[in-house]
Every structure is written in structure tokens, then in C-alpha cells.
Amino acid sequence: MGFQTLPGAGREKGEGDRPWWLVALVAIGLGIAAVIAVNDLYAQVFTTVSRGIGVTVFVTVVGFVLATLLGLLVALAGMSDSQIVRQIARFYVEVIRGIPILVLLFYIAFVGAPGFVSLYNFLIGPLVEGGWLSALQVRDVSLMWRAIFALMIGYSAFIAEIFRAGFQSIDRGQVEAAMSLGLNRYQRFRLIVFPQAIRVIFPPLSNDFVAMVKDSSLVSVLGVADISQAGKIYASGSFRFFETYSIVAYIYLILTIGLSMLLRRVEKRMRRKGAGR
């Protein structure tokens, strides 16, 4: 009797709650927007810092797309019939997951990029000597792309584990039934495994996407002109640290919360479609 009077009984905890947290956030956001509109200092800070939004969005989207593709390949390699391929995939995942993103950024930028340039110049050496191509310089590899590749590698290991868990969540009997119908491996993956696994994969994958928006701020250590770098430059020149970093936090909150709400809506729609089948 007492359990029936508890709020949320008979449904998932938190399901159906009024989004008062969102009302509070919107009210605070509108208040800050009003301050920016009427205060010249905050307006100037916002204008300056917002110039880095495009770079932040570009680095995040490109880095995440590349990380997703690489993570999918690593996950498929980890489920390969070949033990050697599986061990290589596991080695990659364990090593990359153990390295902090910031360390990976420095390593790719100042070790990986020069190593790549040296290898590239070695491979095209005969063409350079023949005057067909010119040698590549380390400065020709932009810091933005070094940062993107570092985020790609860093996140691909985590995304690979998300894909692996999603694929392995599919009942083995369905795969065996598809095999009995004569479907080849690619057809089983495309028609049976992936459409069901994507509903399991999407929530943690979307969480990683939001996390990359925040972790993209680390690229400022390489001098990439994102939101954090724009704020750092303005604050160091004006000594307005409180105003600058308040606006930086405000912009990141708009990006992450807006993206989280959008992805949550997509997740609910996928869940409803899956329940209707």
C-alpha cells in the first residue's frame, strides 16, 4: 500500500517528472543574455569569444565522425574470426584508453606529426629528387588537424567498446536464424545486427559526442583558435578573467545542453519506433 503512494511508482524513476531543472537553466540563461545585451563589457567579451564557436564545432564534428568510423573498424576487428586481428584490436583499445587526451594531443602534435612528415618524405624521396614533388615540412601540417587526429584516436578506443557491446547484445539465435536463411556475413550485419544494436549504441555514443564538445577545449593548448583559446587571449590582455570565463562557460553550456536535449529527443524517438515493431 505504501509503495503505491511513492512518486514514480509503476514507471521508470524520473520518467514524467516536470523539467524544473530546464526551467531554472532557461531562466539563468535568459538573465545572462540580458546582461550581455545591456552591458558593453560583457557584450564585447561575448563577441570576441563567440568567434571561436565555428572552430569548436568543426573540430568536434570532424573529430567525432572520424573517431566513429575508426571505432567501428576497431570493434569489427575485435570480433574477427582471426585471433591475431582480435589481439591487435584489443591492444589498441587498452593502450589508447590508458593515455589522457591532453597527453595524446601533445604526442600527436609534436611526435606523431614530425614522424609522419619524415616517413612521407622518405617514401616520396625519388619523386622529390626528380623534381616531381616537393618535400613536406612539419609546419605544413596544421595544428588544427593535429588536434583533430588526436581527438579521433583518443575517442575511437571508447567508441569501439560501445560498438562491441552493442553488437554483442544481439541474441545469438537471431544471427543463427539469418545464417540458416543463407544470408552472408555482410547481410546479417546490415539487416539483423546493426538495426537492433543501434538502439543500444546510440545513448552512450551521443554521450561521447557531448563529451567531445567539452574535450575540444583542450585543443587550445596547441593554439587552435577555439572558444577556450579566444577566451584565454582576451583574458590575458584585458585581465577580465571573471567576465571572460563566465562567458566561455555560458557558451559551452548552451552548446552541450542544447545538443544533449536534441540527442535525447532522437533517442526517445528511436525507442518508440523500436517498441512499435
TrEMBL record:
<protein>
    <submittedName>
        <fullName>Amino acid ABC transporter permease</fullName>
    </submittedName>
</protein>
<comment type="function">
    <text>Part of the binding-protein-dependent transport system for glutamine; probably responsible for the translocation of the substrate across the membrane.</text>
</comment>
<feature type="transmembrane region" description="Helical">
    <location>
        <begin position="20"/>
        <end position="43"/>
    </location>
</feature>
<dbReference type="InterPro" id="IPR035906">
    <property type="entry name" value="MetI-like_sf"/>
</dbReference>
<dbReference type="InterPro" id="IPR000515">
    <property type="entry name" value="MetI-like"/>
</dbReference>
<dbReference type="InterPro" id="IPR010065">
    <property type="entry name" value="AA_ABC_transptr_permease_3TM"/>
</dbReference>
<keyword id="KW-0472">Membrane</keyword>
<feature type="domain" description="ABC transmembrane type-1">
    <location>
        <begin position="53"/>
        <end position="263"/>
    </location>
</feature>
<keyword id="KW-0812">Transmembrane</keyword>
<dbReference type="InterPro" id="IPR043429">
    <property type="entry name" value="ArtM/GltK/GlnP/TcyL/YhdX-like"/>
</dbReference>
<keyword id="KW-0029">Amino-acid transport</keyword>
<feature type="transmembrane region" description="Helical">
    <location>
        <begin position="55"/>
        <end position="78"/>
    </location>
</feature>
<keyword id="KW-1003">Cell membrane</keyword>
<comment type="similarity">
    <text>Belongs to the binding-protein-dependent transport system permease family. HisMQ subfamily.</text>
</comment>
<keyword id="KW-0813">Transport</keyword>
<feature type="transmembrane region" description="Helical">
    <location>
        <begin position="188"/>
        <end position="206"/>
    </location>
</feature>
<keyword id="KW-1133">Transmembrane helix</keyword>
<feature type="transmembrane region" description="Helical">
    <location>
        <begin position="143"/>
        <end position="167"/>
    </location>
</feature>
<dbReference type="Pfam" id="PF00528">
    <property type="entry name" value="BPD_transp_1"/>
</dbReference>
<feature type="transmembrane region" description="Helical">
    <location>
        <begin position="244"/>
        <end position="263"/>
    </location>
</feature>
<feature type="transmembrane region" description="Helical">
    <location>
        <begin position="99"/>
        <end position="123"/>
    </location>
</feature>
